[in-house]
Amino acid sequence: MTAPTAIDDLLNERLEKRRQDGLLRTLRALKIPEVITSNGGVLAPKVLVDFCSNDYLGFAQSAELKNLTAIELSKFPNYPNGSGGSRLLSGNTKYTEETEEFIANYHSAPAGLFFNSGYDANTGLLSSVPQRGDTIISDELNHASLIDGCRLSLAQRFKFKHNDLADLEKKLKIAKGSVFVVVESVYSMDGDLASLLEISSLCEKYTANLVVDEAHATGVFGRNGAGLVTELHLENKVFARIVTFGKAMGTHGAIVLGSNTLRQYLINFARSFIYTTAAPMHHVAAIKAAYLLLSQTSSKKLNQNIAVFQKLARACNLPILESNSTIQGVLFSTNNAAKSVATYLQKQGFDARAILSPTVPAGKERIRICIHQFNTEEEITALISNLKTTLND
Ligand code: PLP
Question: How remote is the CA of residue 2 from the centroid of ligand 1, in Å?
Fold first, then answer.
């Protein structure tokens, strides 16, 4: 058995290697914003201009959402602080089930089941549905939570080249058993969209089941922000959708959307659903309130901001990624170059972060820029002008 100090030494060695490679991850504590501004109830970020968070619509900082949550909660004056257990034991309420139904309906899906996070939803779904003898075909740029879900499954697994229909078809031809094709509607590091219409046609041709992670499309694409699947009217062609609440919805948690049978199945077999404490009621109320707010929110300003960023970045010949989503990126060819530009931008008052290899392929390191509804044109212009300065240095 390894002695406690010996194991610490071993861990330190690995951490040291990470540090030497320039890849050590550290936590940064952010200040909680305190000032309520008059522009739609958004709490003003006190320190850096936010080009980093996934809070695309400003909901995480929204005073209006806080009020709506309080109104929801006021229906239950004696709501408990905690759920007290898993959904299958003491942690389920009629309100939770009604909210799942409400959200499923919002996304034009027959049913939905909450998970405590998108990570839990993806691992729960993919580890439980595809069985030994089945096949999962997963886009090579899928998020770690989808990759981990695939790894937990006993099914055979293939990756297909990012958004490459020919490669997907090649894998579909050799797939055995029940087949699952797993994609994101908006890719989290590149911001590009899956070719969902074509992928869905291929799934139909080969009788494969399409799983779509809508984490970065929720609140941004589709009627009333219901996602890319609804925008493309593919609701009936998709086996399962994963919608997460920690991004544009400004809260936390996730829902898997699909048939009533899928919901029943996940309740019985998804370990990340079964063996965990259910979200407390105030959390469910915040999610419900976020949907009420979303139904009244236009994404016009968000789309304008994306267009402004693209127009200015192209005018300056910045090496940007091809993306029409909230996730934009300026490419560099080394970790050090991306890191030093991120540090420069932060000193100039912008919260924009470097994404390094191996998270992205070597030579494609980048500054990932998230565009928000609340960013002003002046802020976007200033960001671009600072990026231009660093690239000309
Ligand atoms: N799926 C995608 C595409 C993501 O980008 C993320 C989070 O970054 C997740 C799933 C995980 O969601 P959550 O943060 O709710 O665990």
Answer: 35
183's enclosing H/E stretch is strand 179-184
Question: How many Å lie between the centroid of ligand 1 and the Cα of residue 5?
Answer: 35
Looking at residues 36-45, what average pLDDT do you find? 48
- Does the reported pTM lie above 0.70? yes
Query: Tell me, what's the pLDDT at 46?
Result: 53
pLDDT category, 38, cuts 50, 70, 90? very low
Q: What domains are defined for the chain?
A: 35-57+299-392 (3.90.1150.10), 63-294 (3.40.640.10)
Model confidence at 41, pLDDT cuts 50, 70, 90, reads low
Neighbours of 265 (CB within 10 A): 16
Q: How many CB atoms are located within 10 Å of the residue 99 CB?
A: 21
The CA-based diameter of the chain, rounded to the nearest angstrom, is 62
Determine if residue 177 is left, alpha or beta; phi over 0 gives left, psi from -120 to 50 gives alpha, anything else beta.
Answer: left
Cα–Cα distances in Å, from 47 out to 5, 35, 82, 100? 40, 12, 33, 36
Across the strands, what pairs with 366?
Answer: 331, 355
Instruction: From residue 93, give the alpha-carbon distance in Å to each of 60, 71, 157, 169, 198.
Output: 25, 18, 37, 44, 40
| Ligand 1 atom closest to residue 54's alpha carbon, by position in its atom list | 8
Ligand 1 centre distance from Cα of residue 19 (Å): 26
- Residue 369 to residue 375: CA distance in whole angstroms: 12
Q: DSSP state, 204?
A: H
Going by C-alpha positions, the residue among 329, 317, 328 that lies closest to residue 372 is 328
Q: Whose CA is nearest to atom 12 of ligand 1?
A: 118
Flag whether pLDDT at 80 surpasses 90.
yes
pLDDT at 45: 46
Q: For the residues of 48-108, what is the DSSP string, one character each? A: SEESS-S-TTSGGGBHHHHHHHHHHHHT-TT--SS--S-TTTT---HHHHHHHHHHHHHTT
Q: Is 145 in the pocket of ligand 1 (CB under 6 A)?
A: yes
